[in-house]
Amino acid sequence: MDKKIPLKVVGLSHSHTQSGAYALILEDTAGKRRLPIIIGNFEAQSIAIELEKMKPGRPLTHDVFFTVANTFDIQLQEVIIYNLVEGVFYAKLILDNGMKHEEIDARSSDAIALAVRFKCPIYASEFVVNQAGVSVEEEEHNEGDPAPETKRTEKDSLKKLSTKEIQKQIDKAIEEENYELASKLQKELDDRK
Questions:
Q1: Are residues 128 and 72 in the same domain?
Q2: Are 35 and 132 a contacting pair, CB within 8 Å?
Q3: What was the pLDDT predicted at 167?
Q4: pTM (2 d.p.)
């Protein structure tokens, strides 16, 4: 495999190209290129929950995998997005239990959901980043982004709520499994600290 580029998760947003899907944004650690990956609602929620340190009432599938792996001393050492074929990203989980080292094929969205739980490195092959990566400067000039006024209005309406009101809304959103809203509300609380 060619050179591995280290990545970090920098965001999740609604996909502008596919209804009901999300764009997971990964960025190289140098901050020069981003890799957008379209993922499903469930995986987006799973990633958002872990990034925002929320606890759902019942464990999600990725949480169950994490618990089973830890119970049997299996470590996820790294995730590698190694190929891109006709718009589909291919990833591997690199697992180790001290006696055996295995590479297991996985969907990139599941691999990232696990990587954020195991707090392990995420990589993409140089080929994948060259094929699907977008320079940060290019992305900042993308006209498809919501207008700054829309972002500001949404943020201003949250600022009017008390910390207690926001916490109640977070609890309600989690109960209704609206993890995207819960994530936004949690970010507002974190910004206040």
A1: yes
A2: yes
A3: 79
A4: 0.72
Tokens of 155: 């943020």
Judge if 172 and 111 occupy the same domain: no
* More confident position, 28 or 186: 28
Task: Give the up-direction half-sphere exposure of residue 106: CA atoms within 13 A in the CB hemisphere.
Answer: 24
Domain limits at 179?
A: 146-193
Domain match, 115 and 66 both: yes
Per-residue pLDDT of 61-110, as tens digits, reads 999 999 999 999 999 999 999 999 988 999 999 999 999 999 999 999 99
DSSP helix, strand, coil percent of the chain (3-state; round to 5): 45, 30, 25
Instruction: Name the residue with tokens 């997971």.
Output: 24
Q: Does residue 126 share a domain with residue 99?
A: yes
**Cα gap 95→100, rounded to integer Å:** 8
Q: Which one-letter DSSP state was computed for residue 57?
A: S
User: 44 and 63 in contact (C-beta within 8 Å)?
Assistant: no
